[in-house]
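Here is one such protein, fold included:

. . .
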Amino acid sequence: MEHKLHVAEPEKFMKDLPALLNEAESIPLLISGNSMLPFLVHGRDTVYLSKITKPLKKGDIILYKRLNGAYILHRICKKDGQSLSLIGDAQPVIEKGIKEEQAIAIVKKVNRKGKLIGENSFTWFFFKKIWLNIIPARGFIIRLYSKFK
């Protein structure tokens, strides 16, 4: 099956996204920005956004809308009732107080380095379970990795 690439203005894409999620199993979105490094790389990797159909939990990657109107893709590091705490994989600071209704979509698979991976892969497990629990050490690990890369 041939897929056509559709490029949309970001605001139009985000406005249309809820309707698109009702029509398709997943919607691809090319990564823009570096907050999800080292798991996802700007301009290289694609996430597949899906409609949220079950309760969100720690480790899930979600697309959400900040109160200032910015659309952000980050990982849930804590859930307290209807309030979420989120963090990018490259960041040391947790964003608290995000309401569940701000969540627009969930990521269930990604195209990383040209390979399609899902929630059952080792890489996904590593970033969801291990990387998420070593937030204070992330900066040091990334700097160390950069020196030897």
User: Anything to note?
Assistant: The chain has one domain: 10-148.
